[in-house]
């Protein structure tokens, strides 16, 4: 009976899947791993060449495992002991440890040596992006149809010549047994780019590998958070600490705070930290409590069935609740110097950065309520504020416009647009006496153009605040949830909660906040959304289905066995790789005891490494 119980426990445990970091035990296994993911999944392989006696190897190992958990389902992580796998180490020319090799479609695309966690993350992300971009195939019929629409002079034979070149490029570095009549991966996407450049359109590309289907026994996520700014990460920390194991889905580029290179001075308790530094700390804290991350872009959310389905560019995620924390992007002018001087005097947040330009002349661009608010905020600390507006009247509310027009430290330039923003190099203090000073480019003036006469005027200033509005990143929810009728694109919530018009979908941060748009208010609403999601799950009776499933199996088996344990049984929770050996050896000992033979003490046996499925 306990053998059956042991088997059931193994089956229940298998829900968690294979180890996040696989151990390569021989060359044959390694070659099969390469072939499988080059021809069946398209997933990149991240290899850690290590040695147990290597100090830096031990130092980076936890980061490697943490990264493997973060990119689970997006990349395959494996470790290779250089002292045991000489052939594999020699194949990649490993000369120092640790060495990390990044493989896409069976080919090395990058490598580096050393215990650099930032490099490891950067190269992993690059490998994942390449694998995703190469996950395409071009069918001959689609290429034929493309030429029929764009270059009818090419007959089928001519089109086939083009297609065969792509096939040859695809098979160029494949083993003979792996060569196929197909145009896929880099050659397919490269051909599509060339055709688009020539004809301004490209042939249809299909996905080469389908998104990995959920394995039987997998369970829906309880909380899926879309967005990884202050709102999303705050929600992740709260949900993770509540034991909900949230999944954060967001591209790696980051939001407004991620792009803020100067110090953030208005977030309590975090003085002298940049935006990326704050985001990184939040991310590390979320991971520490069990949050999982997927660096993907969400395309849509299907609420027609439960659990809901979050569709990304590479996979589908079943989930009971969704927290939308995608933020809102500032609208920019798109003029020369604007991008280059962001963080050097060009900003979209007067509340965040206005104090940095105390007693100086600053320019505000815009004519709505946001521009009026920014101008009034800046007038408290700046010597002079100039508002540049392209019309002869403000679009702002009458009250706000009158306050700006009547303020003694604010002037208005009507019927004008910004043509370019110029900068100048200044010396700033370096990291210490030895480093000395360093040069930095900051805003020096702005060139504005009169829309009526076309004349240019240069205004000397220390900063330019662009206040022409924000665009919430919520288009993927069109037709799914209700928007705020007073603020286009922002999600409508039901105060004081973060609930939207759809049960189980909650909104936090700038995706629903058209008024404050601050990192700290976003973080607060993210925490509120996590609490709302936790309450929703409790009310609907949606607990930890995976744990409940395993507990139910255990209860059933214990019920069948009457809860009695036979003598001479073995530990059902022991490593499955050693369970069989334990039973066999115990029976031999018992036989010898019955025959009164002397039982020799057995030497300790090294624990086998876990079995690895390819």
From TrEMBL:
Residues 560-614 are annotated as: Disordered. It comes from the Eukaryota. Keywords: Disulfide bond, FAD, Flavoprotein, Oxidoreductase, Redox-active center, Signal. One of its GO terms (biological process) is cellular response to toxic substance. Residues 1-17 form the signal peptide. Residues 1-129 form the Thioredoxin domain. Residues 582-605 have a biased composition (Basic and acidic residues). GO terms for molecular function: oxidoreductase activity, acting on a sulfur group of donors, NAD(P) as acceptor. Belongs to the class-II pyridine nucleotide-disulfide oxidoreductase family. This is Thioredoxin domain-containing protein.
